[in-house]
TrEMBL record:
The lineage of its organism: Eukaryota, Metazoa, Chordata, Craniata, Vertebrata. GO terms for molecular function: zinc ion binding. SMART domains: BBOX. It holds the Pfam family zf-B_box. Keywords: Metal-binding, Zinc, Zinc-finger. PROSITE patterns: ZF_BBOX. Residues 42-78 form the B box-type domain. InterPro entries: B30.2/SPRY_sf, ConA-like_dom_sf, SPRY_dom, TRIM/RBCC, Znf_B-box. It comes from the Eukaryota. This is B box-type domain-containing protein. The keyword Metal-binding applies. SUPFAM superfamilies: B-box zinc-binding domain, Concanavalin A-like lectins/glucanases.
Amino acid sequence: MTNESAISTVPLALVVHRTCKPNRLIRNLADRLRAQVYHRTCPEHQEKMKIFCQTDRQLICVVCRDGHTHRGHACVPISEAAAVSKGELGKALGFLSKDNGALAGLISEQDGEMRKIKEKSTRLKANISARFRELQNFLQKREQELQAEVVKEEKRALLPMQANQAAMTQRLNPRLEKESALLSGLDIDESDNFQQWWLDHGSPIVGELKNRASGTGEISGQHTVGEFRSEAEDLRVTPDTPCSLTLGPYESHLQLFVWKEMLKVVRPVPDCVTVEDNDDPVLKVSRDGLGVRHVDVRPSRMWAWGRDPQYSMSHTWSGEGFGAGQHYWEVTVGEKLHWSLGVEADPHGDRESVCRLNGRFGKHRVQTQREVPLDLGTQPRVVGTYLDCDRKRVEFYDADHVKLIASATYDTDKPLFAYFNPGFYLQGENADPLALRPY
C-alpha cells in the first residue's frame, strides 16, 4: 500500500485534529467578547460594569469611574439607572399605546367616513341611472308614438292617392287587352286572312276606341265623332301637397318640442318662489295666474318720493324660508345693467346677508363676508340659485348653459330667504324687472 492510499484511509476528522492546533490568542479574544456581551465586562479593565455615567450616558466599571476619563462625572449604580430607564420606558409605552389607539381609532373613523362616501357614491350612481332610465323610457315611448303617428299620417295621405290609382288601373287593364289584340293583327301576312280578322275582331275594337255620336249632335266630349277617345284625358294625379303628410312643428323642431314634453317627467322642478310684497313705494311685486313672480321698479313712484334715481335701490325676499333640504330657483336678469340675487337670513330682524351674486355694468361679484370679483366673460341671462341646506352651501349657475358661476358655504342655522334686488333705476335704463322663471 502506498503512502497516498494510506493517507486516504485515515478519517478526515483525525487529519483535521492532527493538523489544526488551537489558537490561544483567538480563544482569549472570543472569551473576552463573550464576557463583554453577556456579563458587561469593561473592555479596558476586564471588570464588571456596575456603574452608569449620566454625564457620558455610558456603562463603566469602578476603575473607569475613578480614572481620568470619568472623574467628576455624575455616576449612579446601574440598577438605579435601569430603574429610572424602566420608568421612562413604561411612560413611553403607555403614551405610545394610547396614541396608537387614538391613531387606530382615527383610521377606523376615517374608514367609516370613506365608507360613507362610497355608499353615497353608490346611491348617487343608482339615482343617476334611475333618472336617466326614466328619461330614456319617456324618449323611447315618445319615439314609438311619433313613429306610429307618421304611419297613421302616411295611411291618411295615401288613401285618396290609392283610390285614384285604382280608378286608373280599372281603366288601363281592358285597354291593355285591346292593345294586345290589335298587336296580334300585325302578324297576319295574307291579305284575305287579315281582312277577315279585321272584320271579325279588329274593326269592333277600333270602333270602341273612337267617339260615338250622341243623341243631340256630332260632338261627344271635346272631340268630334270618329276621333279616338282618351281614357287618360279626364284623369288627374292626386299630388303630394305640402300638407299631405306633416307632423307640424314636430317635423322641424322635434327636439325642442320633445324637450318641452320631458318637463312632465322631470322631478323635482325649480321652486316656484313666492315673492313677498314689502309695501316699498318704489318696488312692485307682480303676480299672475300662472304663478309667475317678478320684481319691478315703478319709476313714477320713485320720482314721486323724490329719490335720486341714480342711487335709489329697493329689495325684497321670498315669503317662505328654507331650513332643510335642497332648493333651486331661476331668475331672468336679461340685459339688466345692475342687479343682485342671493339668500339672506332673518330679513325682518337683524338682516344677515349669507351670499349674493351682484351684476354691475358687466362686472360680477360674489359676496359673502367680502366681495370677490368674478371673470364670467359674458353676462348670464338667467341665474339659477341652488341652496343645499343640509350641506350649508349656496351655488349660482348660468341656467341657460348649466354652468357653475360661483359657490360658497355658510354657518348659520337660521332659515334662509331668497333675496331679490332689481338694482339702480338709472333713469329708466335699468327698469326691466327681475322675473322668476316658472316651470
